What we know:
Elements: E1 24-27, E2 30-33, H1 51-70, E3 83-87, H2 93-99, E4 118-123, H3 126-139, E5 144-148, E6 162-168, H4 177-187, E7 188-202, H5 203-215, H6 234-243, E8 251-256, E9 260-261, H7 265-272, H8 275-281, H9 287-291, H10 293-300, H11 303-308, E10 310-311, E11 313-321
Parallel strand pairs: 3-4, 3-6, 4-5, 6-7
Antiparallel strand pairs: 1-2, 7-11, 8-11, 9-10
Amino acid sequence: MFIKTFCSILNTYPARLHISLSTLTVTRGYTHTMASKTPSTNVANSIFSRGALYEQLVGETSTRLSAAALSHLPLSTYTSTSRILDSACGPGIVSKLLLSPSPGYISVPGLPLKPPPNVTGIDLSEPMIEQYQANARALGWTTAEAFVQDSQDLSRFPDATFDAVVMGLGIFALEDAVAGVREMYRVLKPGGHVLVTTWKNRRPQDIMGRAAESIRPGGAGTKAMDIDPKWLTAEHLASVITAGGFKAESMRLCESAPNWNSPSLSELLEAFSSPMWTAQFCKGWSEDEMGRWTEEVGKQLTEKEKASCTVEMIAHICIAQKGH
């Protein structure tokens, strides 16, 4: 569920991508400041306002998780007449896996789907839908459409419309998650599948929250981007899915560790200084406080994280089938 265009659009999955602006470089999907050692807190670049920035910064991690989740769908059964809802679609990471060749680090039999099914993307963020549509044009998705739409309100779709509904990392943002699942159940065809992911471990947020607490104890940044802890449990996810109409015996739960990888420690630290994060964790800070950010983030990294340039992220995957 997420964001808008920077200057150019990420249309493919390059092994190494550089987008040079006056103060910004993007390298292998990681965004970091170059001209200034002090990170920016420009809210215009926050996670909820920039589709391209989201895709560039965390696209690889999201792609790994989405691919792992999609592998649990009966991909070989979908045809050109099948309909799939990409709910809380963001810039279209799930749709990209369904409709375009996968990047080299992804190998899931059956992806992309051939022939391509009809895919509908919805997201509450207009900039995210703009990025989705830009990707669709650039990649030639002739069977895709996208709308600005609340994922909890699927009233624009008739009952039994879709063969599958996929919601990646969006269910915990719904005002009423059970009502959202009921809507997913309603728009699924009998025998259709719902696929939902949530986080179990968001180590990057923990690192940045601790760094914020070190710099401004008790400040709002300490809790930036927090989600209700119950959403980090498989039990709560399962309870919401069943409360929404799916039977427990039709449901499977598993985990995936897409992780956040960087080519080097310096690039990892610079990625943590992206406006996508600092606009959330460092809002309202002084220049002196901002100048301490990268150093404090580095102090929060374990020796293993520093050596591997990898930060752990673990997600829950839930797949459930609607009864015939």
